[in-house]
Amino acid sequence: MSIGKLGVVGAGMMGSEIALIFALAGKQVLLNDTTAEALQRAMGKLEGVLDSGIGRGFWAEEDKPRALANITTTTDLGDFSDRDMVIEAVFEDVDVKGEVFKTLDPILPADCVIASNTSSISITVLSASLSDARQANFLGLHFFSPVHRMKLVEVISAMDSGQAALDVATEACVEAGKVAIQVKDVVGFAVNRMLFALWNEALRLVEEGACTPEDIDIGCKLGLGHPVGPFELMDLTSNTLNLQVADILTDAYGDRFHPRPMLKQIVAAGRAGRKSGRGWYRYDENGRRV
Ligand SMILES: NC(=O)c1ccc[n+]([C@@H]2O[C@H](COP(=O)([O-])OP(=O)(O)OC[C@H]3O[C@@H](n4cnc5c(N)ncnc54)[C@H](O)[C@@H]3O)[C@@H](O)[C@H]2O)c1
User: Which one is catalytic: 192, 200, 239, 242?
Assistant: First the structure.
């Protein structure tokens, strides 16, 4: 089975770009959010992403109208009754995600592949919101931000995920230009576990006064060959989300992932990162560093 019709639930930072990469790959994408305004905002953002991608040579001028024409928006999940695959990218909250799956369950075709883009919630736990018959078709697809630039997707198998669904989802991601790695449903999956270990050490260095965030970012880029420094990346992914994920990792693995006091402090101070105009760095209204 190959995916022709895709549904994406949640048109925020991740969902909107997930819709975009599949639309660029020629899939018919239905993008859902709770309000028409959120969907309008997402489509406006995608126009900007498409323009900047043309400027950088990621795709051609003629790909823009084609990709936009492949995305339809809806606030009604009832419109998902003909989808081959659905990817959920709503808030990182087990109850919010669970409600989405419960709503979708009676609507989707019986063989629909269903995936969550959660960064930290167990796929096996999320699958409990679906009826038994659907659990073999449920898995995790963990994309990385910004989705149009980052090549990786972690394909996460829950306890009951079937190989057929994992293969179909992997193939669809490959068609959308991604490289997939297969990971079992361990908390944090593979890449975030490594990332949060690095971030905690970077935060410790700043807390000790050994380095500034700027110097750590330069160190990782020029010394380790990372394209983005840890503090730049924390701001990009949102410190609020990072703190939530750190708490979930701590719950699973204990002290080695305990969120650093400075991360808690910056979140309490409302410095979520690029989205909010201030994090470890300051940003203008277009999200550019100032
Ligand atoms: N930010 C990252 O770098 C990153 C990376 C990988 C995975 N993720 C995961 O992707 C998911 C989305 O993250 P994000 O950064 O795009 O968040 P976001 O806040 O930018 O977007 C979430 C969107 O979901 C919508 N939404 C909320 N409840 C909904 C519902 N019931 N039905 C439909 N839409 C609903 C919101 O209106 C919002 O537009 C989370 O699970 C997050 O953990 C995030």
Answer: 192
- Domain at 191-276, CATH homologous superfamily: N-(1-d-carboxylethyl)-l-norvaline Dehydrogenase; domain 2 (1.10.1040.10)
Per DSSP, helices labelled H in the chain are: 13-24, 36-55, 63-69, 94-104, 123-127, 163-175, 191-207, 213-224, 230-237, 239-253, 261-268
pLDDT in tens, 145-194: 899 999 999 999 999 999 999 999 999 999 999 999 999 999 999 999 99
> Domain 5-184 falls in which CATH fold?
Rossmann fold (3.40.50)
Distances (CA, A) of 67 to 33, 39, 49: 19, 16, 11
Rounded-to-integer distance, Cα 240 and Cα 21, Å: 26
CB atoms within 10 A of CB 133: 9
258 is catalytic: no
Domain ranges of the chain: 5-184, 191-276
Is 98 a pocket residue for ligand 1 (Cβ < 6 Å)?
no
| pLDDT, tens only, 213-223 | 999 999 999 99
Looking up tokens 């997707």, which residue turns up?
A: 153
What pTM value is reported for the model?
0.91
- Greatest pairwise CA separation for the chain in angstroms: 57
Ligand 1, atom nearest to 143 Cα: 6
154 is catalytic: yes
Quick check: CB of 38 below 6 Å from ligand 1? Answer: yes
What count of other Cβ atoms lies within 10 Å of the Cβ of residue 109?
A: 11
Q: Report how far residue 81's alpha carbon sits from residue 93's, in angstroms, rounded to the nearest whole number.
A: 24
